[in-house]
Specification:
Layout (H helix, E strand, L loop, with lengths): L2 H22 L3 H21 L3 H25 L4 H4 L3 H24 L20 H9 L4 H22 L11 H5 L37
Length: 219
């Protein structure tokens, strides 16, 4: 058993542990941290497969940006954990069934004769001047150009849908329409001066007694 194979089994075990704890953790902050652990171990798995660019991208994009955003959102929101986990066990059988079906589908794909996993064989040493970034870009923009463009369109649609949901019309919108401001006619007057008489409040005069002296307040 080689060192690479030992590291593969260790990283795979940690990835499975992090994935299970992400789903079963009671605290959402802990679940996010377990997901960060899963992403980091997955990046190390990519590095073990000599795909340095994908490993670094996974750390920078998901761990450095997406998961940090998730952590900020989870920590700033007042999440009721008990209410969030109220229907966990009720929906657990459905989730377990879907997970089993997905696992069976993946196994059938891997053991299918058309997949031909035996053709890959053990990983070979690559030359020092080999660039996996250049090879990856060549494959994306030649062989997998159509799936790449479809994925980009789906991401753009998701972004547009999120913006549309955020900017839905409300009953009392608190924003200013610049078009309505421009339509104002300056000749009609944006501000009208109204002449009003000045009102001066006089201080109250103290009450006096019969001798003309002010009455002293009683404590």
């Amino acid at each position: 058993m080689t060192f690479s194979l030992i590291m593969f089994y260790i990283l795979a075990a940690i990835i499975l542990f992090g994935a299970v704890k992400t789903v079963t953790a009671k605290n959402p902050v802990h679940a996010s941290l377990y997901l960060v652990l899963t992403f980091c171990m997955s990046a190390m798995m990519w590095m073990l497969m000599q795909a340095e660019f994908l490993g670094i991208t996974l750390v920078v994009v998901y761990v450095g940006a997406v998961m940090v955003l998730f952590l900020f959102v989870v920590m700033m929101l007042n999440i009721d954990i008990e209410e969030m986990r109220a229907g966990f066990w009720r929906n657990a059988p459905v989730a377990f069934t879907v997970g089993v079906l997905m696992a069976v589908a993946l196994i059938l794909i891997l053991v299918a004769p058309d997949t031909n996993l035996a053709a890959f064989g053990p990983m070979k040493d690559i030359p020092a001047d080999y660039s996996n970034v250049r090879d990856l870009g060549s494959q994306i923009y030649t062989t997998y150009l159509l799936p790449f463009e479809l994925a980009a369109v789906l991401l753009v649609l998701g972004m547009v849908a999120a913006i549309a949901l955020v900017h839905r019309k409300t009953v009392n919108p608190k924003y200013i329409n610049p078009a309505d401001q421009v339509k104002v006619n300056a000749k009609e007057g944006r501000m009208r001066m109204v002449k009003m008489e000045a009102v001066v409040h006089k201080p109250a005069q103290p009450e006096t007694d019969s001798d003309g002296q002010a009455e002293e307040g009683k404590a």
